[in-house]
Design a protein that fits this description.
The chain is α+β, with helices and mostly antiparallel strands. The chain is built from five helices and ten strands; from the N terminus they run ααββββαααββββββ.
Length: 247
């Protein structure tokens, strides 16, 4: 058999000199180089460097995507899956999806970063900040879950120096509905409507409550001068209000 036609035996040759090893190594080198190019190239980039749809200067997708993914459509019907629990003598809403997630002592925190989460927070915090909820509730609620400032401090002073006694069950206004006056993922302004205890023609009053999203939760803005009456509006109907409350 001639030398050129004899079978080639590479068993005694170093592995890196065998043809199969060389071909595999070359293929692996191509794959690695291709992977590096893909890893360092921005998504969608090519030789034409098309800038269509590029993010505005000074922002990145990581900065914008959380805001863009947050829901902003406000409820136009009463939220479902809500149960009502007593705080003092007043019922407050609790939702498995909107919060609160943590109820400790007299405080309730951990609300969803959604319009419904802001609504539940408005009802919970305004009720727990009332004198009828008891000092073990209103003092930590206002101190920890209200935006700091002179109005918050004044509200605390008013309650600490209050000379009236605990209200009797049935003598306090209860939540009857809501309306969103404005909403963004940073700030919610909600008109919380309460039914006043009365005989004959129903009477309601609306508190315009402002909440800010800060430190991972909704925080209440204290009323001007620490007086809830500064946010209060009296009405005799529920026009424009989504009826909502304990049944």
């Amino acid at each position: 058999m001639s030398r050129s036609s004899a079978p080639q035996d590479f068993a005694d040759r170093p592995p890196w000199t065998r043809p199969g090893f060389i071909a595999a190594a070359a293929l692996m080198l191509i794959v690695v180089i291709t992977g590096i190019i893909v890893a360092v190239s921005p998504p969608g980039s090519d030789d034409d460097t098309d800038t269509t749809g590029a993010p505005p200067a000074g922002t990145t997708p990581a900065e914008r995507s959380p805001e863009q993914s947050l829901p902003t459509a406000v409820p136009t019907t009463a939220p479902t899956g809500v149960r009502w629990e007593l705080v003092g003598s007043l019922p407050v809403p609790v939702s498995s999806t909107a919060g609160p997630k943590q109820v400790t002592g007299g405080t309730a925190a951990g609300y969803a970063h959604t319009p419904e989460g802001a609504l539940i927070a408005a009802a919970q915090l305004s009720t727990r900040a009332g004198f009828s909820s008891g000092r073990e509730s209103w003092e930590p609620t206002i101190s920890q879950q209200f935006e700091p400032g002179p109005d918050r401090d004044r509200l605390l002073d008013v309650l600490r120096n209050a000379g009236y006694t605990q209200a009797e069950p049935g003598s306090l206004s209860q939540i009857a509905g809501f309306s969103y006056q404005s909403y963004t993922p940073d700030t919610a302004v909600i008109g919380l409507t309460f039914r006043a205890p009365s005989v004959g023609t129903p009477r309601y009053h609306v508190l315009s409550l402002t909440l800010h999203w800060r430190d991972g939760d909704w925080r209440m803005v204290a009323p001007p001068g620490g007086m809830w009456t500064s946010l209060n509006r009296i009405t005799t109907d529920l026009v424009g209000v989504v009826e909502w409350g304990p049944r």
